[in-house]
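F.,

This is the one I mentioned.
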């Protein structure tokens, strides 16, 4: 066989080999550094501002901040927030239990800051604030605000997410954990309706101004 034929044969064999190895290396880089993965940080700050008039009325100036540390734009069809106040019974329950303080007096019911039809988004490298103000009434000494941001996953990731959540649901039901099962069912509903799966949570607690309570 002439040398030119050997060279052509070697090139035909080497080209797909290099392409295959290059693809493996790209997958390794993606899995190792998550170059196109979801990389977000959620921060929360808020102020309790007394309103003029009878004591007990306040404005909650809530400022959730989402930082997109990844390389692709991320959209958020659901950005839930709610607020609750501290009760004396909450403190007593924490002392009698494991010390975990649960503030269950809801002064601001859960609401979605975003619009699922036209969701908020954050571009790569951007730190975006989504301010929200609400009037609440409370005689408590402390207020807690909670924010949960759900980011939209790609269509290709939906089948794997659905399979994973259904497996979690079967496991929770087999253990008789109805609370966990209900939580997974709600996650599946959000996945099917809004194409969201994972979320970030931020919690902050602040004292209500003493001289206005």
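My design for it:
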């Amino acid at each position: 066989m002439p040398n030119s034929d050997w060279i052509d044969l070697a090139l035909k064999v080497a080209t797909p080999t290099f392409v295959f190895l290059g693809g493996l290396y790209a997958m390794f880089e993606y899995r190792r550094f998550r170059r196109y993965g979801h990389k977000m940080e959620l921060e929360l700050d808020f102020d309790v501002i007394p309103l003029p008039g009878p004591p007990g009325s306040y404005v909650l100036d809530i400022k959730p901040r989402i930082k997109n540390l990844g390389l692709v734009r991320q959209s958020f069809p659901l950005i839930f927030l709610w607020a609750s106040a501290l009760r004396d019974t909450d403190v007593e329950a924490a002392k009698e239990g494991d010390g975990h303080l649960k503030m269950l007096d809801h002064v601001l019911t859960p609401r979605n800051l975003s619009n699922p039809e036209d969701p908020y988004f954050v571009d790569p490298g951007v730190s975006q604030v989504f301010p929200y103000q609400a009037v609440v009434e409370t005689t408590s000494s402390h207020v807690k605000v909670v924010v949960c941001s759900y980011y939209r996953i790609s269509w290709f990731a939906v089948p794997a997410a659905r399979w994973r959540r259904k497996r979690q649901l079967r496991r929770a039901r087999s253990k008789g954990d109805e609370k966990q099962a209900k939580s997974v069912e709600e996650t599946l509903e959000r996945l099917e309706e809004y194409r969201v799966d994972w979320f970030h949570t931020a919690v902050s607690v602040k004292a209500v101004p003493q001289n206005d309570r």
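The chain has four helices and ten strands.

Talk soon.
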